[in-house]
């Protein structure tokens, strides 16, 4: 069987082989079918109820025989090892590194970092799994040092991480760095650091053949075919494609979207390995029991202004008082505290409560906060000139605060990725810092109790409880 690599995005096989290949590119697609229409009292129609639907789907064209190039290693393994089909690949491209040993002035790579850099340079497509605080920007810079003539695009999902990455690249000696974001569409530099949203606003003809290497930070945001990341990766002809994340998604369709766009996992440093190596700290978990409120126990719906999340998390005054009580005690001990919230008004409620009843000086970072202000706050927080910061998801990932002492999960939630990313803000091991505390809450209400159990399972799996 012959596989033709059409370009860095797609491969093709003869359509007679499609039925043979389809099983290795299969996933279970799901969608929600809305229920029947009913008339409301005001005469308007709306749909009520609905059911989840499932069917088998495939990442290969039935008539075209085309599949995403990131699946090539999977297809080859399936054909050769599982089906014993002699297979030939035609048209595969690779970049030849100009430098065989990675080097950054003033940086000595840790053995695991050098190992991941070499694997990336050899495989050239795929995902690198490394926990928060393991130096993913250093690993990325090490890879770039081996390809000094290549045009590079480094994609981020937020302006804060974009600026942080750009600053670090320049610190590492990469002078020709520009950025796309906040109105700038500068593609003139050898290295372009860009927000995915801003990059998607640029005409395809301006970048489709511009880059040799594309790197994506926090690749788990490529969470489906309709995401900006997935659509963008179908429009660039970059040969080398790499993604970084601490935890891969568990949903099969999402994992296949990532693999098809980039490639398989090519290198990994596990969280507990990083702890054993002394790269990050093992956190200790403080669990706080939340008293039950009868009116909230009687609620049945999760969402909405009168839903369980709103009443049990956002507006739950006993729970919010517990959060501020724990915060106040840590601040009196000279510790810095980061409080994570999901909804912006939850942050406002906590800030008001903390300042009025506990006499705390609190800074609140949310989506509307100017990116320059966010960076100034980050620096002051790391220097402990600011002791308490409340933040929404804009600071849940990729923010470097090595000195952080305590993370309070005020938002709840059940996602392993979100939980580990949030905790990762405080796991950096530095001189003078003995421990990192994670404070979580045992919520007693419908849905929320299940979410609590799922977070406890994550902590147990990591051997943190």
UniProtKB/TrEMBL annotation:
Designated name of the protein: Helicase ATP-binding domain-containing protein
Residue span, Helicase ATP-binding domain: 117-266
A GO cellular component entry from the record: cytosol
SUPFAM superfamilies: P-loop containing nucleoside triphosphate hydrolases
Domain annotation Helicase C-terminal: ranges: 317-465
Species for this entry: marine sediment metagenome
InterPro entries: Helicase/UvrB_N (IPR006935), Helicase_ATP-bd (IPR014001), Helicase_C-like (IPR001650), Helicase_Restrict-Modif_Enz (IPR050742), P-loop_NTPase (IPR027417)
SMART domains: DEXDc, HELICc
GO molecular function, one term: hydrolase activity
């Amino acid at each position: 069987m012959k596989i033709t690599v059409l370009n860095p995005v797609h491969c093709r096989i003869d359509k007679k082989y499609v039925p043979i290949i389809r099983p290795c590119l299969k996933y279970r697609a799901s969608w929600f079918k809305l229920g029947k229409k009913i008339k409301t009292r005001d005469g308007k129609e709306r749909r009520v109820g609905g059911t989840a639907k499932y069917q088998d789907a495939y990442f290969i064209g039935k008539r075209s025989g085309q599949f995403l190039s990131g699946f090539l290693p999977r297809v080859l393994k399936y054909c050769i090892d599982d089906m014993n089909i002699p297979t030939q690949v035609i048209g595969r491209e690779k970049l030849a590194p100009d430098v065989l040993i990675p080097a950054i002035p003033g940086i000595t790579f840790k053995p695991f970092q050098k190992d991941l850099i070499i694997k990336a340079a050899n495989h050239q497509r795929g995902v690198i799994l490394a926990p928060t605080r393991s130096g993913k920007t250093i690993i990325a810079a090490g890879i770039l040092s081996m390809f000094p003539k290549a045009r590079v695009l480094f994609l981020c999902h937020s302006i804060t991480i974009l600026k942080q990455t750009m600053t670090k690249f320049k610190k590492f000696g990469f002078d020709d760095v520009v950025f796309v974001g906040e109105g700038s569409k500068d593609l003139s530099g050898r290295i372009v650091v860009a927000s995915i949203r801003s990059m998607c606003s640029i005409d395809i003809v301006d970048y489709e053949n511009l880059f040799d290497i594309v790197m994506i930070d926090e690749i788990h945001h490529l969470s489906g075919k309709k995401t900006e990341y997935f659509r963008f990766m179908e429009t660039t002809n970059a040969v080398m494609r790499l993604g970084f994340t601490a935890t891969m998604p568990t949903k099969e369709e999402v994992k296949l979207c990532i693999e098809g766009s980039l490639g398989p996992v090519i290198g990994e440093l596990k969280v507990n390995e990083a702890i054993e190596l002394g790269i990050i700290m093992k956190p200790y978990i403080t669990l706080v029991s939340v008293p039950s409120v009868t009116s909230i126990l009687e609620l049945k719906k999760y969402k909405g202004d009168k839903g369980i999340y709103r009443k049990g998390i956002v507006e739950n005054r006993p729970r919010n008082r517990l959060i501020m009580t724990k915060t106040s005690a840590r601040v009196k001990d000279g510790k810095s505290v980061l409080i994570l919230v999901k909804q912006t008004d939850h942050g406002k409620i906590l800030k008001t409560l903390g300042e009025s009843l506990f006499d705390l000086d609190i800074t609140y970072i949310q989506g509307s906060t100017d990116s320059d202000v966010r960076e100034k706050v980050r620096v002051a927080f790391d220097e402990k000139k600011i002791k308490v910061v409340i933040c929404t998801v804009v600071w849940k990932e990729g923010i470097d605060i090595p000195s952080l002492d305590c993370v309070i999960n005020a938002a709840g939630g059940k996602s392993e990725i979100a939980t580990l990313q949030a905790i990762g803000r405080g796991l950096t091991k530095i001189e003078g810092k003995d421990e990192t505390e994670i404070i979580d809450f045992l919520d007693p209400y419908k849905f929320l109790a299940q979410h609590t159990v799922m977070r406890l399972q994550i902590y147990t799996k990591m051997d943190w409880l």
